[in-house]
């Protein structure tokens, strides 16, 4: 039974090591995700600015078309003035001319204002594009580093799984099943050492009899408080 206990301790250590890769993978994935979010944020900002610029350009075009029509109207009114015979008609044409000129003036002011906004937006876009290049370089670096970490982990996992299979092959199926049942709820603390006569899974003190049984290692001994498999490690043995 001592052999089984030794193998269980080793199996537990391997399982703990395998599971320790999970937070490492999560960490590199989180780093990539964070880098991607920075890129997406800048891209969204650029897209929003481009949308504003496009909308402003459409408005500029509409104002320019309006100015063309108003100028045509002024030309027509100038022709009509030659044929005006009454003061009332003259005043009406004059009023139309004043309104048209006001509209042209307003349109020109709006065109100037919108173009000024677009110039500022273009300047911001250039800065954002520079930032985007930098963020994309960071993302690529993070991706390359993540691939390296993951490759290293996969190699280590393959070695550990091979060792695990060897140990499983040597263990009695009944004991292996017992270990796996405990591992379902205890995770990587299914097999724990006893130190200072206490279970290092639940940290509760065990009785002298249970402690003596653990020292003997004649059979698999579990903690009477939490049910974890107990063993004496090197530190306790020396003590």
Describe the structure.
The chain is mainly alpha-helical and 239 residues long. It has two domains: 14-170, Helix Hairpins; 174-238, no CATH class. The protein has six helices and four strands. The protein has a four-stranded mixed sheet. Strand 1 (191-195) and strand 2 (198-199) form a beta hairpin. The longest helix is centred in the middle third of the chain and has 84 residues, at 87-170.
The CATH class assignment of the largest domain is Mainly Alpha
How would you spell out the order of helices and strands? HHHHEEHEEH
In which range does the helix fraction lie? over 70%
Please give the number of β-strands.
4
Structural class: mainly alpha
What's the overall geometry?
rod-shaped
Contiguous runs where pLDDT drops below 50 for at least 5 residues: none
Radius of gyration: 40 Å
User: From the coordinates shown, what is the CATH architecture of the largest domain?
Assistant: Orthogonal Bundle
Distance between the termini: 23 Å
């Amino acid at each position: 039974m001592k052999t089984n206990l030794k193998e269980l301790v080793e199996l537990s250590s391997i399982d703990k090591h395998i599971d320790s890769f999970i937070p490492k993978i999560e960490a590199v994935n989180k780093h990539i995700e964070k880098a991607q979010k920075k890129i997406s944020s800048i891209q969204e900002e650029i897209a929003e600015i481009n949308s504003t610029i496009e909308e402003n350009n459409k408005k500029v075009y509409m104002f320019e078309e309006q100015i063309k029509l108003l100028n045509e109207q002024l030309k027509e009114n100038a022709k009509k003035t030659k044929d005006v015979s009454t003061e009332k008609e003259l005043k009406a044409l004059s009023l139309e001319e004043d309104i048209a000129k006001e509209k042209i003036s307003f349109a020109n002011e709006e065109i100037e204002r919108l173009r000024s906004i677009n110039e500022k937006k273009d300047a911001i876009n250039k800065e954002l594009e520079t930032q985007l290049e930098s963020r994309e370089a960071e993302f690529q670096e993070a991706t390359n580093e993540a691939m390296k970490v993951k490759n290293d982990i996969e190699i280590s996992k393959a070695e550990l799984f091979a060792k695990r299979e060897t140990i499983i092959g040597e263990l009695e199926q009944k004991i292996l099943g017992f270990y796996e049942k405990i591992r379902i709820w205890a995770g990587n603390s299914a097999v724990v050492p006893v130190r200072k006569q206490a279970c290092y899974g639940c940290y509760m003190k065990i009785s002298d009899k249970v402690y003596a049984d653990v020292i003997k290692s004649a059979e698999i001994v579990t903690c009477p408080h939490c049910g974890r498999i107990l063993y004496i490690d090197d530190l306790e043995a020396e003590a």
